[in-house]
Specification:
Number of strands: 4
Oligomer: single chain
Radius of gyration: 19 Å
Largest sheet: 2 strands, antiparallel
Helix content: 25-40%
Shape: extended
Low-confidence stretches: none
Strand order of the largest sheet: 1-2
Strand content: 5-15%
Mean pLDDT: 86
Order of helices and strands: HEEEEH
Length: 107
Amino acid sequence: MRIVFQGSLHPEELGQAVEEIIAETLAEVEGTELHPQMLHNPTVETNLNVVGFEKPVLVTQDDENLMFTVHTGFKDGEFTEYVAPDKEELLKDFHEAVEQEENANKE
């Protein structure tokens, strides 16, 4: 699920808005039981108000204008060390899931 916001809001409003959107979306899906939701690997991209700039700006790093990115883990309500995913393992798992689905459809 992807949620794209347009406009400005405070960080605490973002959490409330995401919670509301998820609840309303699940309420529209027949047969879905509403229960507490966990966000798995959420990504937030935002422009920030920076002194000296008229409008909010995307914060970049270095001279390459790459978006400034903070990587962090989060578990049991606490920040943890970020461990980069093994892309090869992710691809392997994906291909196995596709193969299992294809085999299930053949039966």
